[in-house]
Design brief:
- The protein has one domain: 2-Layer Sandwich (YaeB-like fold), CATH 3.30.2310.
- Helix content is about 25%, strand content about 35%.
- The chain contains two helices and five strands; from the N terminus they run E-H-H-E-E-E-E.
- A five-stranded mixed sheet has the order 1-5-4-3-2.
């Protein structure tokens, strides 16, 4: 079982969007606890992963040795990779 930590940037974004969307995003993120690699895809050229949620993306770092998932950023699909 993995623990989940959400960084400050990601929390700020969740507060800006609608409550319904933020609940959906959080539900999807917390579903990663059991099997994180089920929904994650590796970002090309990086050691980070992406999680697809509706029109949003979450950039995630997985620390396997410590069983920890760190959500670095959440944003709209069109500008999250900038």
């Amino acid at each position: 079982m993995y623990s989940i930590k959400i960084e400050e940037n990601a929390e700020k974004f969740l507060k800006k969007i609608s409550k319904k969307d933020s609940e959906i995003i959080l539900r999807k993120i917390y579903s990663l606890k059991e099997n994180p690699f089920r929904y994650l895809k590796r970002l090309k050229g990086h050691k980070l992963w992406r999680l697809r949620i509706l029109k949003y993306r979450a950039i995630v770092d997985v620390v396997i040795s410590k069983n920890k998932i760190i959500v670095l950023r959440i944003g709209y699909r069109k500008n999250i990779y900038d």
